[in-house]
Sequence to fold (461 residues):
Amino acid sequence: MVTMETLVSLCKRRGFIYPGSDIYGGLANSWDYGPLGAQLKQNIKAAWWKAVVESRQDMVGLDGAILMNPRVWEASGHVATFNDPLVEDAVSHKRFRADHLIEAWIAKKDPESTLVVDAMSTEEMAAFIAEKGIKSPDGNALTAPKQFNLMFETSTGVTEKGKNSVYLRPETAQAIFVNFKNVLTTSRKRLPFGIAQIGKAFRNEITPGNFIFRTLEFEQMEIEYFVEAEEWEQHFEAWNKWMEEWAAVIGLKTDHLHRLEVVGDALAHYSKRTVDFEFDFPFGKKELWGLAYRTDFDLTNHAKASGEKLEYTDPADNSRKVVPHVIEPSLGVDRTLLALLVSAYEEEEVAEGDTRVVMRFTPQMAPVQVAILPLMKKGGLPEKAEEVLASLAGIARCDFDVTGSIGKRYRRQDEIGTPLCVTIDYDSLEDNAVTVRHRDSMEQERVAIADIASYVVKKLV
Ligand code: GAP
Fold:
């Protein structure tokens, strides 16, 4: 499997992902998506939105605000319980996740252990750390674990006096619950139906890291799917299946995907059942996505706190009012992108002692779909290539590249995952045809310029 070092370096070199605030020496654990990364991210979100909103009659979209009334987070339980266990190095005062230190200790000293660290209470963690003498990574004693709230607080209002505390949302989901009544009234959907949303979420993670895997600011693609209480299991299973299928559609290696039934204290405060989709990242098997059965927890709590009735009236029997139960498939955009990079990366020996790096993105995910490569910078070739480029406008995402030898240009396109390279040579001026080179097979074929648009459309499906 590709190492993180190789991936991070490729991402910076080719313009997928840069360290955040780079010219100021960066900001720890912040990352900026470059031209190719921004496009890849866009492709992931567009594919998800198309699959879950545009292609279904039982789903609608929403784009809620990041800042919400603070009472939302009290009612949702996040103020009281959205915590991680924190320990501090008694000397350096660096902070660590107690559960992560325990997991690392087990992996090193007792790999056969069946202890589920996620299910441990704060007291159990304290006892374990004391009993095993677990130290900080710097070798110093640790303070007892305490719960640390992950929500970022900021304030609204221009004067100190009028200052109001608000939170940056730690999940996009709450905007969906808070708008349940508005959406139901305006969309006239019937159960079962879902509301989908893509947006930024923020968490003051104690130990962010592993590139874009765990950051303070990230994007989520979330669905709250509203169902009759007694039907929750069938819908849970349907989404469970859908998530695996969609992983394959976008090009994730499905043999890297594993389901984990979340148990005990590891279950979020709102969940009766959660299945984590874990993925084999270069740094280990870690959570990629989550699927939760949130019951009627959120709608009931918001109804109580706001005084609004958040119910559904059975159209077949107007006297029957129900508070729908909720199935929530929650996908992190950034983790999906990281898993896609891991899945796509391949080093291939093309001749003895000659290897190429190739990103095997699906044609839909590839940031660049067609590279237009005039063989030379002169002799009328760039002008002919411009004609080809114009014929693909609106059909494919194209890159026009005239620099370097053709071999080098092919390698560059392989490394960013471009499925097709179209080369314009001197013969093109005579026969009005181009050479199309395929990324995966490296096979080449001659195609008439008049046919190139329909050819590309067929190859990119
Ligand atoms: N609304 C449910 C919810 O937020 P979660 O398991 O806490 O559930 C859902 O988060 C997904 O969001 C995760 O499976 C992961 O893909 C992504 N995610 C969570 N925290 C993240 C972080 N700090 N950095 C990047 N992605 C994160």
Notes: The CA atoms of residues 43 and 365 lie 6 Å apart. The chain has a mean pLDDT of 95. The first strand starts at residue 17 and ends at 19.
